Description:
CATH superfamily: Uracil-DNA glycosylase-like domain
CATH topology: Uracil-DNA Glycosylase, subunit E
Amino acid sequence: MPLPASLPDRLAPDLNILFVGINPGLRSAALGHHYAGHSNRFWKLLYDAALVPEPLTYRDDERLLEWGLGLTNLVARPTAGMESLTVEDYARGRSALIETIRRCRPRVVALLGITLYPILFPVETRQKGRKPGLQPVTLYDSRIVLLPNPSGRNASYSYPSLVNAFRALAPWAGTFPE
């Protein structure tokens, strides 16, 4: 069975938070849902950081819109790893993402991976050692929060440190009815 060319974005106007991944993995593309990799911790992190009111799985990716959360990727093309992406992929993806942000106007853009920052803000990368958290730049009035990649391949961050990083989004998350 051939893989879809890309995963459907989960977008709406005026989102609280737009999560931006690097690109879909092969399993996510095959299943048609974001962050479907066996070792990906994205869904667990959303709940453990109190960004959603109930535990979710990749099958619930459309439901994020209920809480003002959206999903997209810098590069739409699925690959086994980001090593397969080209300079052209990044350039096209950067333009498309900036247009998505202009159109949707999320309050916050949460970049899921430290490597996304220099692609989106090449002038800003002169400062070495970019750390997770709120960044000193905006795109169309959307605040930028840099988060570690939730992939299980990312051994640089323990799970508790990932939860703490995701909690930085709490000021922009919606409230949940009791």
